[in-house]
Design a protein that fits this description.
The chain is α+β, with helices and mostly antiparallel strands. The protein folds into two domains: 58 residues; 316 residues, 4-Layer Sandwich (Glutamine Phosphoribosylpyrophosphate, subunit 1, domain 1), CATH 3.60.20.30. It has an eight-stranded mixed sheet. A hairpin with a 4-residue loop joins strand 7 and strand 8. It is elongated, with a radius of gyration of 31 Å. The N terminus is likely disordered. It binds aspartic acid (ASP).
Length: 378
């Protein structure tokens, strides 16, 4: 049978053979067309996927936001040189953190290194540029929080640790405690190889003059039997605070925040502000947001500003922007406090919120778009 059919095939007349060939070619063309159509629809699907990915890409992979203090910062009081100097350090600081995040580094590292840049500048009230206490010393506070583990570290009232944010980080990473203070914190810093400096490293003429002005003002207030003797510098109150802080989201979805400060001019009796207090000056939680505060610390402590913003998102499901507005303007503001926060939420949404006339601030998204601002209305 098989040999017959073989033979038959061979003897098919030429015309019939041509027909068969035509049929086969048609079939082949049909199949090719089908294949092509299939491929097209597949690539259409994949381009839908690509655009979905692109859409997803709109949710930033990472984000970073910083502040260098809030207060009555008016353009009319600022020289172009001074403004340029502030902008330059803010930009250098935020780019430092941005590079870490872009290269896949952690938000904790980004926060620490970004704050280091501002701590090393005399322009900000943190590290090198810290304000003076009533006793003409510099007592520095800082804190940091990891949103993934809710672990935290803080240091208060140190006089010889060059970068208090490093100390806060070391307390978090290498001790069973959250907050260390004074001499004990300095011993811990020494044991962990942190950079120590002589207390006069923190001397700057500008800050010393602020202390003198605060003391003069205090005398005037006392002479007038005004019980509200200014423990804070009128310059600081009326011009700016200057604490530094940072909040960041990394590529792994981990949030972190940190804050570092010299506190408030003319402070005394070992006064500690909000900056080293977890929940007031700093808070981070991967489920909600990361926040760093600046302003009149006593009010930020009483209003639990940083944690309250996170709690509003956690318990009420409101947006970061709504939570920040409510806490700064309604809760803390109504107590009489002044200042602001920077924050980023788990989706990479960044917020600046303040009730003062300005706040040194900057933000960068994963596309490298940078914003550096000082005044309320830029
Ligand atoms: N919050 C800081 C403090 O009260 C001051 C500041 O933000 O500049 O110590």
């Amino acid at each position: 049978m098989s040999s017959v059919s073989k033979y038959q095939l061979k003897i098919v007349p030429l015309k019939a053979n041509n027909n068969l060939l035509m049929k086969r070619i048609t079939l082949l063309i049909l199949m090719l067309t089908l294949c092509y159509a299939c491929k097209e629809s597949k690539s259409e699907n994949s381009s839908t996927k690509d655009s979905e990915t692109e859409l997803k890409g709109e949710t930033p992979e990472f984000a970073i936001v910083i502040h260098g203090g809030a207060g009555t910062i008016l353009k009319k009081n600022m020289t172009p040189e001074k403004e340029a100097a502030y902008n330059a350090v803010l930009e250098e600081a935020i780019r430092t953190g941005y590079d870490i995040l872009k290269n896949g580094g952690t938000s904790l590292d980004a926060v620490t290194k970004t704050i280091n840049v501002m701590e090393d500048s005399p322009l900000f009230n943190a590290g090198k540029g810290s304000v003076f206490t009533n006793a003409e010393t510099n007592e520095l506070d800082a804190s940091i929080m990891d949103g993934q583990t809710l672990n935290a570290g803080a240091s208060a009232g140190t006089t010889t640790v060059r970068n208090p944010i490093d100390l806060a980080r070391a307390v978090m990473d290498n001790s069973p405690h959250v907050m260390l203070s004074g001499k004990g914190a300095e011993t811990f810093a020494q044991e962990h190889g942190l950079d120590l400096v002589a207390p006069d490293y923190f001397y700057t003429e500008n800050r010393f003059n602020s202390l003198k002005r605060a003391k003069d003002q205090e005398k005037i207030e006392l002479d007038h039997d005004d019980q509200q003797a200014s423990f804070y510098d009128p310059e600081i109150k009326n011009f700016k605070y200057g604490t530094v802080g940072c909040a960041a989201l990394d590529k792994n979805g981990n949030l972190a925040a940190g804050t570092s400060t010299g506190g408030m001019t003319n402070k005394r009796w070992g006064r500690i502000g909000d900056a080293p207090i977890i929940g007031s000056g700093t808070y981070a939680n991967n489920e909600t947001c990361a926040v760093s505060s600046t302003g009149w610390g006593e009010y930020f402590i009483r209003a639990q500003v940083a944690h309250d913003i996170s709690a509003m998102i956690e318990y009420k499901g409101v947006s970061l922007a709504e939570a920040a507005y409510e806490v700064i303007h309604n809760k803390m503001g109504k107590l009489g406090g002044t200042g602001g926060i920077v924050a980023v939420d788990k989706n990479g949404e960044m917020v600046f919120e303040f009730n003062t006339e300005g706040m040194y601030r900057a933000s960068m998204n994963d596309q490298g778009d940078i914003k550096v601002e000082i005044y309320e209305k830029q």
